[in-house]
Amino acid sequence: xxxxxxxxxxxxxxxxxxxxxxxxxTLNNLMGGKLMHWMDVVAAISAQRHSNSIVVxxxxxxxxxxxxxxxxxxxxxxxxxxxxxxxxxxxxIEVIAEDIPANRKYSSHKAFFTFVAVDCDGKPAKVPELIxxxxxxxxxxxxxxxxxxxxxxxxxxxxxxxxxxxxxxxxLEGIGQKE
Length: 179
Ligand SMILES: CCCCCCCCCCCCCCCC(=O)SCCNC(=O)CCNC(=O)[C@H](O)C(C)(C)COP(=O)(O)OP(=O)(O)OC[C@H]1O[C@@H](n2cnc3c(N)ncnc32)[C@H](O)[C@@H]1OP(=O)(O)O
Hints:
Blueprint: E1 5-6, E2 13-18, H1 32-51, E3 54-60, E4 74-84, E5 88-99, E6 104-118, E7 129-130, H2 135-154, H3 164-169
Parallel strand pairs: 1-7
Antiparallel strand pairs: 2-4, 3-6, 4-5, 5-6
Palmitoyl-CoA is lined by residues 40-41, 44, 54, 56-59, 85-88, 114, 116, 118, 124, 151-152, 155, 157.
């Protein structure tokens, strides 16, 4: 029998890789596509741990490449489910790059992935609820509803008028108005 609810720690995944010559572009930096592949797999394992199901990637929110990761650097990917909906889950992933000889470590990428659990016929399947346990988990959990509404609007799966959670962010009525 499947669990009815799970906690964030149940879905945690950490993967550490070294950037090798086959992973780089002609500038000897990690290829963006290679990093996205690692992120997709690590995030998918996290969603699988939460759902105990096969999962498919439904969407990836904006990934920006702030700074290059050089050949020989060590890359650590850390993923966790932030919230589960009906059949979909939001996964937060953070990438830390490390230049060990220089003793330098920095957060290089952050992204939100959405996965959908599917049954053996490829049909979306219900996932356990996620219960946040601390302030940080609660913050990601609350924000997940707004992010979901935004990505469903962008995917033309939601009418902006129905995005109540998102609209409340822009509800400035009364703020800054002169009496
Ligand atoms: C033979 C077996 C081999 C087994 C081996 C297993 C190994 C496993 C290892 C896995 C490790 C690697 C994993 C890599 C994962 C891939 O790379 S998978 C490949 C890339 N992805 C795909 O091909 C997915 C293609 N898309 C689809 O199949 C369908 O669009 C989906 C995502 C299943 C949704 O189907 P649908 O019929 O539209 O279903 P619908 O009921 O309308 O929506 C279902 C949910 O999807 C959400 N959704 C749909 N579109 C979006 C969107 N754009 N944004 C956000 N949410 C969305 C909906 O909001 C809804 O969420 P809930 O409200 O239920 O929570």
